[in-house]
Amino acid sequence: MSHNLLKGKKGIIFGALDENSIAWKTALRCFEEGASLLLTNAPVAMRYGEINKLAELVNAPVIPCDVSSDEDVLNLMTKSMEHFGGGVDFILHSVGMSLNMRKGNHYTDIDYMLNSKTLDISSMSLHRVLAAAMKLDAINEWGSVVALSYIAAQRVFPDYSEMADAKALLESVCRSFGYHYGVKKHVRINSISQSPTKTTAGSGVKGFDGFISYAEKMSPLGNASADDCAKYCVSLFSDFTRMVTMQNLFHDGGFSFTGVTMSVIDQMSE
Ligand SMILES: NC(=O)c1ccc[n+]([C@@H]2O[C@H](COP(=O)([O-])OP(=O)(O)OC[C@H]3O[C@@H](n4cnc5c(N)ncnc54)[C@H](O)[C@@H]3O)[C@@H](O)[C@H]2O)c1
Question: Hey, whose CA ends up nearest to atom 1 of ligand 1?
Answer without folding.
Answer: 202
